[in-house]
Amino acid sequence: MKNESDQERADRNFVELLQGARVAVTGVQVLFAFLLTVPFSTGFARMDQADRWLYFAALLSAAVASICYIAPTAQHRVLFRQGRKETLVRRSNLYGIAGALALMVSMTTSTMFVIDYLFEATLAWVTAGLLAAFALWTWFGQAALDRQDGSGDGPAGDAPDDEGRSEDAGSLDRRG
After folding, report:
1. What Å distances lie between residue 59 and 6, 9, 84, 135, CA to CA?
2. Left (φ > 0), alpha (ψ -120 to 50) or beta: where does 104 sit?
């Protein structure tokens, strides 16, 4: 937005990052909670070693996603009133990307784990590959193409301002 200070822009970008993370955090929490209960079910004992490693990957990536999505809020508490909002916004953007990647791994491996249990390994691998490709495209691929074409959608929060700085949460650096 024009006529907003760097601090106002950082505040707005941080709020936008947190609002976006709220959507993902709920999904991560549900998936993580489910994964924490799986080993205590009776069928888990008959899982082979490959399925146990697949489960390990799903559980670990859900934990990493949870940590990444919670990190901005925790760091905000530690850095409160320290004048480091722009640093926090840049760092939070990276945590959001890392959290999304970890969530993609967890969702893919969890789905693969269940499909392998219900059907067969080939179907599990194909389904997991398709899910991973779909998540990569919808979460990152389309956005990466949009960033490259540079056309923009008009007066949006990530358009360059009058001084050539990007207001995007991941690009609060000075270019000057």
Report:
1. 39, 36, 33, 18
2. alpha
d(CA 96, CA 88): 12
- 23 compared with 44, residue with greater pLDDT: 44
- Most distant pair of Cα atoms in the chain: their distance: 63
Angle at 58 between CA 52 and CA 61, to 5 degrees: 135
3-class SS of residue 166? strand
Q: Mind listing the pLDDT tens digit for each residue in 70-112? A: 888 888 888 777 777 788 888 888 999 999 999 999 999 999 9
pLDDT score at 174: 36
pTM of the predicted structure, to 2 decimals: 0.74
Of the chain, the end-to-end C-alpha distance in Å amounts to 19
| Size of the chain in residues | 176
Question: 125-141 burial string, b = 16+ CB within 10 Å, else e?
Answer: eebbeebbeebbeeeee
Beta bridge partners of 33: none
pLDDT at residue 119 in the model: 93
Q: Specify which residues 160 forms β-bridges with.
A: 166
